[in-house]
Structure formats: C-alpha cells, structure tokens
C-alpha cells in the first residue's frame, strides 16, 4: 500500500512551525507496513490543495491530509475535497453537539464558523476529535482512501490513536496482531550495533528488526505479525534473547524507558535514596532525574558546586586534593560523591566533574569527565572522554553517570 | 519570486527524522521576500527525484533541493539533476582537495564514493561546504534556479549563511541592505502583544514587523530595506522606540539573547555573584544558567533541596516555617534564598519552590510557584500561578525566576 501525506498550512511554508505531523504519521504508517512515498506541504489555498489532491490520488492508495479543518476562513481542506469530487458538505450530529456544548459550557454561542468544524463530505466516515472540535474523516474515491485529520499535533495524535488506528486495523486483519517492542541500548553506536546484529536484521522478516539512532542512544524495534497474541509475545522474547547474545550488555530498557527513569527504578528497588553533586553539568543531572514524576520518593537533592570554593565548603572536598589533583580529577570526583552522600544523608551519592568547554581547564581538553559513585561501603570513579560541543558534552555527561550507576548492578 | 523546497531522504518518509531543513529554509526565504509555495519530501530514488524536479521547475523561479549529496549509493540528487537536463558531472577542484585532505589527516585514502561528494553539474556554480565534505551548487535552467544543499542541518545552515545568502544578495541589490533586528519579549502572550502593536504592524511596510511566538516568549522581527546601512539602523531604532511605547516593559533582549544570558550579564554588570536554591525545578535553573559559557565568572553554585529535610539541613530553612507554612510558601522561598546566599557566600541568592505536578502538594495545585530573591540588604518573594503539564511548569518556573531578577533592575 502506497501513501502520500499532505500537510496544509501557510504557517508551515513561512517556517513558523515544523511539519512534525509528517514525521509522526510516517512512523505510524511505516510501522503498519504502509509505504510512504511522498510528503507535500501546501498553503491554505483552495486551488493548490485541489492540485495536491489530484496529483496524490493518481499515485497512491492512501492520502492523508492534515490541517485546514479549523473554524477560520482559510481552513478549506474539507471544501477542497468536496469540490474536487463534487460532494456535499453535511453536519455530523455528534461533532455539532460537541461544538454546541463547548460554547454552552462557557456561556457563549458558537458562530457559524465554529459550527463548520462539524462538517464532513457526504459519504465519508467521521472520526471523532477527543481533544478539540474539528472532526476528521475518511473518504474513499475509486481506489484511493482519503483521510483528513486536524493540524494541531495533540488533536492529530489522539485522533490517530483512538480512531484511525482501529479503523485501519478493521480494514486488514493483520493489523490486529501486529505487536512491537523497542529495545533501548546505551554505550554503543548505531553502526557498531548494526554490525553486531547485521545477519539477524538481514535474515529476519518476522519479527522485523528496525534500528534507529536516538539522541545519544540506539534502539531496535522488533515488530511481529501473528494471528495469536501469545505466540507474538513469545516470538519477540525469542528474538530479544537472540539479539542479546550479541549486544545484551548495552541493553538498558524497553519502549518508554529512559536512563533517568531506570535510575529511579534501580534506586527504589534497592530501597536506597540518592543525592547528586554536579560541577560541569550545573544541575542538569538533578533536573533530569526530577523530570520523572515520583522522583521525590528516592531523590534527596543535590549540590551544584561550580566553583572550587563551593566544592570545599558544600562537599568537604579537601583543599589539598584540589591543589594536588585539581577539580577535574578522580580524587575530586570521589570526594564530591562521598561529600554529597554524607551531607544529604543519602545511601548513594553520585558526582560529576570535568570540562564542558569550549576552553581547556586545568590542562584538560573539553569532554574530560570523572564520575564518582559513593555507596556506604564502596566508592567508584569512572573516567570518560566525550566529544562534541558544550551542550553535547553536558548532556552526555549526565547520561554517562546514569549508565554507570545502572551498570554497577550488572556487576560491571 | 516563487520557490519550492524539495527534501530528499527515505529516512524522512520513514519518520526517523523531521524535515527541519524545510522550516529553516522557509524562514530564510520568507525573510528575503521569496514566496515559498510548496514543500515536497521524496525518497532516495532517482526517478522520483526527477519527477519532483520536473514538477517544481514548471511552477517556480527557485527550487531548493536538500539532501542526497553524500557518499553512499543512494545519494543521487546531483545525478537526478544531471540526467534531467542532460548535463555532465565534473569534479570541483577545491571540494576534491577538501575530501583528499580530510582523509590524509586521518592517514586514510578516500574511496571513489567519498570523492563523488566533490562532483557538480557542469555549468553550475559551486557552494563550499564549511562543515562537511559534500559541495552544494546553484544551476540555472531556463527561468528556474536550482539550489542543491547538503542534508545534515548543520552543514546546510552554514552553507546557506556563508554561501547562498551572499549569492542571493548579489543577484538582487535590495538584499545587500536588508537589515533585521529581533526584539525579545517575556511575560506577555502573542495575541496580547499583537493587539498592542496591531496598528503599527498593519501600517508598516518598511521596516516590516513580524511577530513570532517562541517557547514561552514572543519576538518581533523588524526588517528594513534601505540603500544605506546607517539609515537602515536608524529606521530600526525609531521603530523599536515606537514599539516600546506600547510594550517596552516586556522587552528583555535582542537577537540571540536568552533570559539566562541576560541574567549572567545583569549579575556581571553589577559586580555580583549568584547562587541558586531549587526545589520543584530540581537543578534546571542551575543547568540553564551554566549552559551559557562564561557562567563560572558569576555563578557560585547552588543547592537542589527536593526534600523538606534537605531544605532545613542545606539551607537552614526553619522547621517551624515548614510546619506552619509548608514548603510551598512565601516564607520558605524567602528562607531558601537567604540560606543559599549565606551558604554559598554569594551576593544574590535566588530560590524556587512550588508544585510541578501532576499531583497537588500541601493543598496547592500544580503550577503554584514562589520565587525568592535575596540581596545583602533586601529580600523579595514573588508568587506565580503557572499552567501546563509538569515539564511546562518546570521550564516556565526557571524563566519566571530569571524574568523577576531582571525586572528588579527596572525598579519593578
């Protein structure tokens, strides 16, 4: 099945926003085995939308059009489809009720423009909008299926998940038993990981294995088609076990896991509490950990010790250590981790000291990094050398710290 | 002048990456007065790239094609243009030298595939790649100007700024005296700002005033066309003064300024030092400030006091304060700011306490925020109520803190 995704919106052509809907829909369709052959972006212009519809209908089984379903004058996507195929626009009762209720709740009357959001082309099946007012729709013309979705990403995603996905599944039995699992790896590059599992990727057709490079990490998405859910699960388990033979030491989580959520989980499972001491990252580790709701159960807090003075005063780093080894050193990282663990009375203390750049510091180039991890009966220090600009080094430094903390568990 | 932007890359159609180049180029071209009528994304496929070229050439004066200039087999953009117009591909000497040098420095030999990055279509003018190896080019066929640029965003941006922009300027005299200034506002919404300067926006043609909503802030970009640079500067000054009559109290900076760079500048200008105390933001304020290279000159460090216990122990917040008012309170914010100023021996201490959500805390809903600012002879506390999810509340909380610190200067 071939598809084109048409995004409608002059703001896209002015560069005010990016076509993130195109990426989201491409991912979803690819996942379902649909071949996306083209993205097109056109402005809020009836004629140009019609031209895009004509061109897309010739070459595709499926055409998804996003945007232009709102209440303003320049929202003309549904009009373009109606004019192109000489169809009437009619009100969907439920969508109209949604518009009326929305305004009634605010003690207002909807205008005719507001009501237009409940219009669909006659013969289409309507998709409900769970997070907004403009309804979506699917309309089949000859061999082409047109799917119209609202432009705001949140509305589009919710409509796709709750309405379009089940609709497509009902069109094709194989959708119902399509099961995916994403394996998340840290500490290995995309090409190195691919080289290790290359034969598996090439040989496998079910489950399929799709590598994808994320920010500082790599994922493999396993997707299986089966008529039985339990069997599908089992096939994913087997494939994961096979993959882990080649690169299991880098696997840290699944699906929506992050290094930060795994750190909190790890600390919680062990019944511990955590404190952080940060120099070059200036609070980014603490911020990343507390991004996760529920962090307060295990995270005591931390010290941002940007100056040498604060390392001494807040974390009891020895003046002699700083003089002899400098603040960018194994010794300083160890004392920072011990210091924060003691000062915040936590079970585990983790520290970061190094050079973010752009300039050298104490004779060390940007990217030099020392990570200290302090437990009640043991201290560890790791030295790493990262590449990249200031922002990249800082971002990767906090991930390195988390990865090492998680690796301890594996007895590495 | 009408333009279409074609992005080449199967990874875009698979949803692995988003077409950020489309947005960037749209912004640049719009800024230059070029009308962008269409974006197209096609895969790494010779035939489909040629079809896209044919269609775009019919309707546009300018066609920008991004991607597909790299060293691998599926990089066929230059081949598509060459085949379409029956042109030879020839090596650019400088680009070839760049490839050779790159590999020599690594004690390697470039392959023929690597050398392909130095090929251009005969008759084109070559654009140098300052951050990569694939050269870009501009080729005129009849009335259409084709501009080929590399896909990696960093390479594309640098090439656009250093090569394409001056080239376009040379094509059209008015480019040479196109001058822009971006005014950055915080604390006022897009529609409220537009309402205040609505008449100016409508009346003005030179300079033009373009409002744009950024993340948590709004900008106005003033662009003037003039044959004299000094005169252009003066027109921008006058327009800025006019705008500031209506919303000057929200203006915090220009062009690449951020609230964080302005805070550092503010502290530095006053000869002060700064320390931070964070509860709900968990280190994000410290992290944002230390994102700016040079922060170490004024930033002492800070305490992340996520638990009540750590607020008492690390910042000397009174147990009675916590019991009587709770940690989400004016009193706690004040004591945190005083505490961190004293503990880190800084001139200014700034604190954040509140509720990030998703749950209520101490009876306060998510978004409740107290900001404390402590100077040697004065303390201030601000209460704010933010809306949004956990991530938004945390992000905006650190910006609110910075905005208030900067506002103090204005005697607000």
UniProtKB/TrEMBL annotation, chains A, B:
GO terms for molecular function: hydrolase activity. Keywords: Hydrolase. Gene3D superfamilies: 3.30.70.2860, CinA-like (3.90.950.20), MoaB/Mog-like domain (3.40.980.10). Pfam families: CinA, CinA_KH, MoCF_biosynth. SMART domains: MoCF_biosynth. InterPro entries: CinA, CinA-like_C, CinA_C, CinA_KH, Competence-induced_CinA, MoaB/Mog-like_dom_sf, MoaB/Mog_dom. SUPFAM superfamilies: CinA-like, Molybdenum cofactor biosynthesis proteins. It comes from the Bacteria. Residues 4-171 form the MoaB/Mog domain. PANTHER family: NICOTINAMIDE-NUCLEOTIDE AMIDOHYDROLASE PNCC, NMN AMIDOHYDROLASE-LIKE PROTEIN YFAY. Belongs to the CinA family. This is Putative competence-damage inducible protein. It comes from Geomicrobium halophilum. The lineage of its organism: Bacteria, Bacillati, Bacillota, Bacilli, Bacillales. The gene is cinA.
């Amino acid at each position: 099945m071939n598809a084109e995704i048409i995004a409608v919106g002059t703001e896209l052509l002015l560069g005010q926003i990016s076509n993130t809907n195109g990426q989201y829909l491409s991912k979803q369709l690819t996942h379902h085995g649909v071949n996306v052959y083209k993205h097109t972006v056109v402005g809020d212009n009836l004629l140009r939308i019609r031209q895009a519809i004509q061109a897309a209908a010739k070459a595709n089984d499926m055409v998804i059009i996003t945007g232009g379903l709102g209440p303003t004058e320049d929202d003309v996507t549904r009009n373009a489809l109606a004019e192109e195929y000489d169809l009437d626009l009619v009100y969907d009762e439920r969508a109209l009720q949604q518009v009326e209720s929305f305004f009634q709740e605010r003690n207002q009357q909807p205008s005719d423009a507001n009501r237009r959001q409940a219009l669909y082309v006659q013969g289409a099946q309507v998709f409900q909008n769970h997070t907004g007012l403009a309804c979506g729709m699917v309309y089949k013309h000859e061999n082409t299926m047109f799917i119209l979705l609202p432009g705001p990403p949140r509305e589009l995603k919710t409509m796709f998940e709750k309405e379009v996905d089940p609709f497509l599944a009902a069109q094709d039995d194989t959708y119902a038993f399509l099961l995916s699992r994403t394996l998340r790896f840290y500490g290995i590059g995309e090409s190195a990981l691919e080289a290790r599992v290359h034969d598996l990727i090439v040989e496998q057709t079910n489950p399929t294995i799709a590598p994808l490079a994320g920010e500082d990490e790599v994922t493999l998405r396993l997707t299986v088609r089966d008529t039985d859910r339990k069997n599908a699960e089992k096939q994913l388990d087997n494939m994961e076990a096979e993959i882990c033979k080649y690169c299991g030491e880098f696997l840290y989580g699944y699906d929506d896991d992050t290094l930060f959520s795994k750190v909190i989980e790890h600390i919680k499972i062990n019944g511990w509490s955590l404190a952080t001491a940060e120099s070059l990252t200036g609070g980014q580790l603490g911020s990343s950990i507390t991004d996760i709701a529920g962090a307060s159960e295990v995270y005591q807090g931390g010290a941002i010790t940007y100056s040498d003075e604060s390392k001494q005063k807040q974390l009891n780093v020895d003046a002699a250590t700083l003089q002899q080894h400098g603040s960018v050193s194994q010794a300083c990282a160890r004392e920072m981790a011990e210091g924060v663990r003691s000062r915040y009375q936590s079970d585990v203390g983790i520290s970061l000291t190094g050079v973010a750049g752009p300039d050298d510091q104490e004779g060390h180039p940007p990217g030099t990094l020392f990570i200290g991890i302090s437990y009640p009966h043991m201290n560890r220090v790791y030295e790493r050398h990262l590449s990249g600009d200031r922002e990249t080094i800082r971002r990767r430094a906090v991930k390195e710290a988390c990865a090492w903390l998680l690796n301890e568990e594996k007895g590495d």
